[in-house]
Amino acid sequence: MAVLDPSRAAEDIAHMAADFERQAKRFERLQARMSALAATESSSDGRIAVSVDSNGVLTDIVLAASTRGMDPTAVSAEIMSCLRRAQATLRTQVAETVNDTVGEDPAGAAIADQYAQRFPDVEAGDTASSAHVPPKLPAPVPPRPPMSAGLHAPWETSATPPPGRKPDRERVVTPDEPDEDDEYYNRKSWIRTKSAIMQGK
User: Fold this and answer.
1) Cα separation of 43 and 33, whole Å?
2) pLDDT in tens, 152-169
3) 37 by DSSP, 3-state: which?
4) Dihedral angle sign, alpha carbons of residues 102, 106, 108, 112
5) Which of 15, 131, 153, 186 could form a disulfide with 43 if both were Cys (CB 3.0 to 4.6 A apart)?
6) Which stretches of the chain are assigned E, i.e. beta strand?
7) Each residue of 20-61: pLDDT tens digit?
8) Model confidence, pTM
9) CA-based angle 7:10:15, to the nearest 5?
């Protein structure tokens, strides 16, 4: 049975404590470096920019004045696209920082894996921004169908006088004066009606 050397055990414990101390200092540096990380992604035309902090939380949205004429749906979609790309950029920064600070330490690898699960790769549509979307315009009005000569469309007025003739707005139309023949027949009709009444017809 091997005999435990007390002096050797003390040295092993001292080495382990030194390793723990060095590892603790590396993780302290890792924590400090990670807390300073941030990422910003912009649209292809530069009119929209989104920033996230070291936890991937949205911290800032910058919209250029020209976005006022854009479709709000397109602006919202572009903001989300920039956010996903910024978080993916942060994930890459974390992986590089972990590797540079603590190497292949299992604890560091676990931190990088957490960011990889939270912020997966962006889709192909998010890598190519399409923020420049013109504002929606009203539907074009179809042209009026051609009309035959002398005919008017229902929406056109027919009060326009013929060419070369000015409208006579001051003319007053009154009933024509009855002539002698009209008065004669009117009197005759009245006399015949009165005579029929007196005869009981």
Assistant:
1) 27
2) 555 455 555 555 555 555
3) coil
4) positive
5) 131
6) 39-42, 48-52, 58-63
7) 788 888 889 999 999 999 999 999 999 999 999 999 999 999
8) 0.56
9) 130
Q: Please name which of 128, 47, 54 lies closest in space to residue 85, comparing C-alpha atoms.
A: 128
Structure tokens at 80: 């989300």
Q: What is the largest CA-CA distance in the chain?
A: 164
Q: Are strands 48-52 and 39-42 parallel, antiparallel or unpaired?
A: antiparallel
CA distances to 32, 33, 43, 45, 117 from 29, in Å: 5, 6, 33, 37, 23
Where do we find the tokens 């330490």? 105
Contact of 126 with 81, CB cutoff 8 Å: yes
Asked whether 96 and 80 are in contact (CB, 8 A), the reply is no
DSSP code of residue 133 = -
Are 82 and 48 contacting, i.e. CB atoms less than 8 angstroms apart? yes
Give the least confident one: 4-8, 15-19, 190-194: 190-194
Return d(Cα 14, Cα 92) in angstroms, integer. Answer: 36
Distance CA 113, CA 120 (A): 10
pLDDT above 60: residue 127: no
Q: State the Cα–Cα distance between residues 48 and 63, nearest whole angstrom.
A: 5
